[in-house]
């Protein structure tokens, strides 16, 4: 894994690698956008190639692309994947979030 302030759990890496192989995509892009219930929201999308200024996080055969502006809000965060009775999803554990919405995809910072 590259030296970066953003980490992937083994579960997240396994699921990203599985999805990327099935969709013939190179990576999962994780971005932070303005909006959502609490001010910012996470966006996940398959992406083919990194932009020149992207940070590329690699772990256990998975690749995640993050743009520099999003990385500022994701510094120290960890991407996990949960597969529970109520559904499966990617979840970001973000130490920069001062509060989060019940949906789990929206957060605010102080």
In CATH, what is the homologous superfamily?
HesB-like domain
Number of strands: 9
Average pLDDT reading: 84
Q: Pairing-aware structural class of the strands and helices?
A: alpha+beta
Radius of gyration from the CA trace?
A: 13 Å
Oligomer: single chain
- The percentage of residues in β strands lies in 35-45%
Helicity range of the residues?
A: 10-25%
- Tell me, what is the CATH class? Mainly Beta
Provide the CATH architecture. Answer: Sandwich
CATH names the topology as Hypothetical Protein Aq_1857, Chain: A
Termini gap = 30 Å
The total of helices stands at: 2
Quick summary:
The chain has 110 residues and is of the alpha+beta class. Helix content is 19%, strand content 43%. The chain has helices spanning 10-23, 68-74, and strands at 7-8, 27-34, 40-47, 55-59, 62-66, 78-84, 87-93, 99-100, 106-108.
What features would you highlight for this structure?
110 residues; 19% helix; Hypothetical Protein Aq_1857, Chain: A; alpha+beta; 3-stranded mixed sheet; 6-stranded mixed sheet
